[in-house]
Design a protein that fits this description.
The protein is mainly beta and 129 residues long. Helix content is 0%, strand content 46%.
């Protein structure tokens, strides 16, 4: 999955992924090897050039296969590590089919800040004169 050109902003910080068991209790979600999974909600929006209007963004939930650690509060710009999209189709007990895509990544990291434009001095060189 190529996300170059997109801004990813944390909407809900990473937390352990849970599901409800048959008794309605929340239980941790693990992979086949018993490793705890995490989930983060991100807002994905296309980056555009100055003066252009960006199309509407989308909130996505991403399953993380490793604990991302601390330091990803709301409004933090991030990048996904080894992001993948998995299509799914599940038949519910009442016979309906639910289909969609699931987002998964090995982790997240802080996004590098955008480079600042260089200022030119009065003589046309870089920096202040």
């Amino acid at each position: 999955m190529v996300l170059d050109g997109y801004k990813l902003t944390v909407v809900e910080p990473p937390a352990p992924k849970t599901r409800q068991d048959a008794n309605g209790a929340d239980v941790p979600v693990t992979d086949r090897d018993g490793v705890a999974q995490f989930v983060v909600s991100l807002f994905a929006k296309l980056q555009v050039q100055a003066g252009q209007r960006a199309p509407k963004g989308e909130e996505i939930k991403v399953t993380l296969t490793a604990d991302p650690g601390e330091g990803f509060p709301e409004d933090t710009r991030v990048q996904l590590i080894d992001a993948k999209i998995n299509p799914y189709s599940i038949e519910s007990p009442d016979g309906r089919t639910v289909s969609g895509i699931a987002f998964k990544a090995m982790g997240i990291k802080h996004s590098a800040p955008a480079p600042m434009p260089m200022r030119r001095g009065k003589d046309g060189g870089e920096g202040e004169s």
